[in-house]
């Protein structure tokens, strides 16, 4: 049977763009459907604009902290429209780059919403398109639980285009997006409350990291409220009156819900075609990202494995190896380094202390917290935290965790060391870069052993 395309991709985000352009450059005839802007969540309403906002929010402290270094500035003021619109211009520039990335190797872009018709046919608008293989890379969307007034809550998508910066905000949730946006808002001068229903933020992270980071958020001026949840939101003039489950009330300008993201599969007609999804709507795939229909594949957030851009990209590359070199996909989901761009940021790779215990390792834990040299003169009370988990039997470093300036940058290098199987002896024999915070990772002595 003749198909129009060798590969048709639904979704031009992190995973979809990589798979399309590399497949096209290797000789496949490729088409891609994109319902919104090219580049997907990461480029348009995720990693990139978020990081620009993080940078923007850090400048607020500069004038105050620079005084200890001899600088005097006039009282700083902040213009939200400038940050928002400069960010948008940069994103539009990136959209153009993504268009070239796709078109240069010959990918045909179909602007519109794609859905499956059968195992080899996709409908985009009125057009029916046939392909030998179909790749679904449609990502995920914010999940907001239903409760009275939940329609008054913003989600992260909205934060990138607000007409006005609120004077006060309640951020609900305890994961990546909640802590990152709480930091951004707080840094931009918004009175910020971060509310989480559990007793600790950042589930899944090392317990000491969770506690330390929360202390730092509080110190930075975020009002962290744990064991609290929202019962209802009502409009009160232009403001929002939030009633908590314990009966307490809060009046704020905006409420942001950051309570997870769910796969965008509801309208893809998957069931009719035989593509199985799990209870969360994620497409079920085998190790080669093949769904329950032989010709239909899925990668990235829509499979709900690890919702990170570099993971979606690596999955795309594994699939390319499978299609072009007949190599089984063997994506390694262990030791994925990750950073949370809260303030101070968190960097982490490998096992947490709790995971190492649960897996039966006999471990040594080295940890320290300190005031970074920069802040001895800046006057800021911020502290940094570092931790290494070491297997006593083999001396291998099983995990590295950090809260503090540049944690994301530092953890990338440690990710290589841990992936390569480095031991504590390798860390110890590495010469430190002085004076840095990072050198603490190679100077841990017995004095830093945690009493367990
Ligand atoms: C606020 C925020 C901050 C984040 N920060 C980071 C970070 O710092 N680092 C990190 O690694 N990850 C971060 N992420 C996660 C990261 O953005 C995702 O893991 C990544 O984008 C997933 O890539 P993907 O290809 O699976 O999907 P996406 O990038 O979401 O791409 C899916 C694309 O498909 C399109 N689409 C959906 N349905 C259809 C359809 N039916 N037809 C046509 N097109 C369709 C969408 O419009 C979208 O463009 C962040 C996410 C958010 C929300
Ligand atoms: N820096 C980064 O790499 C980065 C940044 C942002 C997002 N991401 C990715 O995007 C994913 C989604 O981010 P996220 O923060 O939305 O999700 P998340 O899964 O990290 O956190 C969701 C939070 O909401 C809470 N929650 C869930 N349901 C709730 C409810 N009904 N009421 C109250 N709280 C509830 C959860 O307990 C959790 O704390 C992340 O897991 C991450 O993989 C990565």
Report on this structure:
This protein has 452 residues and is an alpha/beta fold. The protein folds into three domains: 5-142 and 262-325, FAD/NAD(P)-binding domain (3-Layer(bba) Sandwich), CATH 3.50.50; 150-259, FAD/NAD(P)-binding domain (3-Layer(bba) Sandwich), CATH 3.50.50.60; 338-448, FAD/NAD-linked reductase, C-terminal dimerisation domain (Enolase-like, domain 1), CATH 3.30.390. It contains 14 helices and 21 strands. The chain has helices at 14-25, 40-45, 47-58, 62-66, 80-103, 156-159, 176-187, 207-220, 270-273, 309-325, 353-358, 374-378, 407-419, 424-429; strands at residues 5-10, 30-34, 108-111, 114-118, 121-124, 127-136, 140-142, 168-172, 191-195, 223-225, 230-236, 239-244, 249-252, 254-257, 261-263, 296-298, 338-340, 346-350, 363-370, 384-391, 397-403. The longest helix has 24 residues, at 80-103. The relative contact order is 0.12. Bound molecules: flavin-adenine dinucleotide and nicotinamide-adenine-dinucleotide (NAD). Residues 10-16, 33-36, 40-42, 46-47, 50, 113-115, 137-139, 156, 177, 264, 268, 300-302, 307-310, 312, 341 line the site of flavin-adenine dinucleotide. Flavin-adenine dinucleotide is lined by residues 10-16, 33-36, 40-42, 46-47, 50, 113-115, 137-139, 156, 177, 264, 268, 300-302, 307-310, 312, 341.
Termini separation: 65 Å
**Total number of β-strand segments?**
21
Q: What average pLDDT do the residues reach?
A: 97
* Class by SSE composition: alpha/beta
Fraction in helix: 25-40%
What's the layout of helices and strands?
Blueprint: E1 5-10, H1 14-25, E2 30-34, H2 40-45, H3 47-58, H4 62-66, H5 80-103, E3 108-111, E4 114-118, E5 121-124, E6 127-136, E7 140-142, H6 156-159, E8 168-172, H7 176-187, E9 191-195, H8 207-220, E10 223-225, E11 230-236, E12 239-244, E13 249-252, E14 254-257, E15 261-263, H9 270-273, E16 296-298, H10 309-325, E17 338-340, E18 346-350, H11 353-358, E19 363-370, H12 374-378, E20 384-391, E21 397-403, H13 407-419, H14 424-429
Helix pairs in contact: 1-10, 3-5, 3-7
Bound molecules: flavin-adenine dinucleotide and nicotinamide-adenine-dinucleotide (NAD).
Nicotinamide-adenine-dinucleotide is lined by residues 145, 172-178, 180, 197, 203, 229, 258-261, 307-308, 338-341.
